[in-house]
Amino acid sequence: MFAGDKVKNETTIPIITAAAGNVIWGFSFLFARIAMKTAPVVVYLSIRFILAFLLLNIFILSGKEKVSFRGKKIMPLLLLSVAEPIYFYFETFGIVYTNATFAGVILAVVPVVSLAAAALVLKEYPTRRQTLFCILPVAGVILMTISGKEMGIIRPIGVFLLICCCLTSAVYKIANRKSAEEFTTFERTYFVILICAVWFTMAAVRETGGNLSEYLAPLQVPSFVVAVIILSVFCSVAAGLLVNYAAARMPVVNLATFGTLTSVVAAFAGILFLDEPMSAMSLAGTLLILYGIWQVTRPENAEAEGERSE
Question: How many CB atoms lie within 10 A of CB 43?
């Protein structure tokens, strides 16, 4: 009984943490949009990750967590850390040139991209049915792009940046899986946030010309302060720890499936709180993307394919 409970927990807890982390990330699009109304992109990202890094150090100083990189293979962690700030560049500027709703839905394609990347790198090949249903998210993206362009809210450069974001996200997930063999959940989260803090602070210094007053000016705006605290505490630290925990305990494709939760939450948050438009064509594109990804990532696909091959 106790052994069965242990196995159940090892399966259930990663599912819960992956779902919770991606739901939190869904709201990051909303709060990022709010923060960027006040501060330049790199300044907002710098402040966000500095706050997140300081919070993680509180855990170390209190003795609740520790970090050790000695004697471990560092390359997967370096790849993970480089992929993260690049991802944020693509994601953030993608939102700038589109909107939170569109960005959230386009990123629903990440599981499909991750499935292809897993096949190339990890030799985890998709079934015939998965390959077929990959067409639906692509069709959905096309509909969303046409609809957004007609409403004058989406620029082609924004679409390009979000596609690059999808590719970077797939690289991130594979690197996360690889680095989990050597590093704990906290160590991976700590190192990635450290690199992001350094990367974006250097960019912010260039942006502001080293003017500290200009850098700190957004902190005088209450809406920015609230948004950046939520992004730091919940989206960077809490969600990062939750998803990194799950990354060590489930395959890349399974973890990527939960990205659809991020997309759905981001889409509805943008519509409800930012009054972003949702036309009939946009809704059709959204449904195509989410249905296609559900079909691609549902476990029954692999099981059914396995039965046919036996």
Answer: 25
